[in-house]
């Protein structure tokens, strides 16, 4: 079955204004994302934006663009508008790929779409990766997820979950991590970082935007908790490959530029 990739691309960014159009190896960042998405099995790749500068740049490299309202409060609201404008069927699979992921492996896009196909009772599919660093487990910018043996999500949190009582029980008495905090990683429970790529059934998006923000969503500032709060099942699977980090800061941008330049140089050398 076919699926559609939607790439939200906003011009406004607190840390990197105009981020989708920043140059990486001679192309705007969003073009790299678009090209990676086109390497997946998606039957259609669409860029969603509310800015005419992004529209012009994307159409120049041949992308299909859907203009959306500038008043959306979340990325899911923007995605729902795109699905509505495209007139997609209720069961059509839609994969949301962030516009600041120029190195995203196409197989991860396929993996999310395939999981929606394999689990017909699932509303949303997403990915994760195992954590091996206790500092990341305690980092609130690293979102953790707990799921059952069938891959169904129980909860997403910025907090360290599950809580390793025997190792972290007295952390509130310490200014930093206890000396044996890392021992929890050896107990086999497993700690997983959520990777922010989502696959949706089109019908789920129309329901999602009708739901009020959930109390847990507001507390954690994690939109996916609204779906869990309203009984929508989310399937989580360990990513088939390690996803490179996206571009959030100037340092991230320079890192990706260096990487892409090395790839381009290697390609010219092989020629």
From TrEMBL:
| Name of the gene | kdsB
Q: What is this protein called?
A: 3-deoxy-manno-octulosonate cytidylyltransferase
The terms under GO molecular function for this entry are:
3-deoxy-manno-octulosonate cytidylyltransferase activity
- Which Pfam families does this UniProt record tie to the protein? CTP_transf_3
Q: What does this protein do?
A: Activates KDO (a required 8-carbon sugar) for incorporation into bacterial lipopolysaccharide in Gram-negative bacteria.
Q: Which reaction does it catalyse?
A: 3-deoxy-alpha-D-manno-oct-2-ulosonate + CTP = CMP-3-deoxy-beta-D-manno-octulosonate + diphosphate
Report the pathway entry. Nucleotide-sugar biosynthesis; CMP-3-deoxy-D-manno-octulosonate biosynthesis; CMP-3-deoxy-D-manno-octulosonate from 3-deoxy-D-manno-octulosonate and CTP: step 1/1
Entry's transmembrane regions: none
Q: Which UniProt keywords apply?
A: Cytoplasm, Lipopolysaccharide biosynthesis, Nucleotidyltransferase, Transferase
Q: Where in the cell is it found?
A: Cytoplasm; Membrane
One cellular component term from this protein's GO annotations in UniProt:
membrane
> PANTHER family of this UniProt entry?
3-DEOXY-MANNO-OCTULOSONATE CYTIDYLYLTRANSFERASE, 3-DEOXY-MANNO-OCTULOSONATE CYTIDYLYLTRANSFERASE, MITOCHONDRIAL
